[in-house]
Amino acid sequence: MLLAGTSAMSLAIMRATGGRFSHAGIVVCPTPGFTGEDGIVIEALMPRVVTRPLHISVLGASRWEIWSNKTLADDQRWAIVWAACLYSAADYGYGKIAEQGLDAAFNTTLFTEKMPQVRGVPICSMLACLSYNEIGLSLGPTGARSIAPSRAAPHIGIAEFVAGNADYERSAAKGDID
Questions:
Q1: Distance of CA 35 to the CA centre of its chain
Q2: Could you state, in order of their start, the residue ranges of all structural domains in the chain?
Q3: What is the CATH number of domain 2-173?
Q4: Which of 87, 91, 122, 148 has the fewest C-beta atoms under 10 angstroms from its C-beta?
Q5: How many CB atoms lie within 10 A of CB 111?
């Protein structure tokens, strides 16, 4: 799931990255054509990683989209969910958001890719990437350390990666089920 939040932090993230989205999460849904009432989201929020109903997660968002990799088997989908659940209730990676901010400010990946990393748990986009990495997939051309929900060229965030990859399809968006 990719989401454009309306909080001051969300707006600052989109301004810094030049992207359309400020947040990413893993959507778990028991049915292929879900209605929005049956989905849950695993996401890294301040102050910790949480699991909550989809309709609560997208509440107040100016826009959101759910993308699905149509090549995955059910066991791969559950492996992604399992990996995301490993971070359940973990503290938010405040140091990592600072590194992402420096990368955005200087239009680079130097701080997240080349410099020593702040130890700790992930931020939202990193949680999504680490969960996909568990089955050997990535959500962008770079590692989980430097990926953002969305990022202006020449860099690519999760949104730009999935939109340009034939394995992914948009399965829902704001207006479809809200």
A1: 21
A2: 2-173
A3: 3.90.1720.10
A4: 91
A5: 22
Nearest to 162 by CA among 153, 126, 171: 171
DSSP secondary structure of 11-75: HHHHHHH--S-SEE-EEE-SSTT--SSS-EEEEE-SSBEEEEEHHHHTTT-SEEEEEEETT--HH
Cα–Cα distance for residue pair 117/59, rounded to 1 Å? 33
Task: Please give the helix or strand (H or E) that residue 41 lies within, else none.
Answer: strand 40-44
Tell me which DSSP letter residue 154 carries: T
Which pTM does this prediction carry? Answer: 0.87
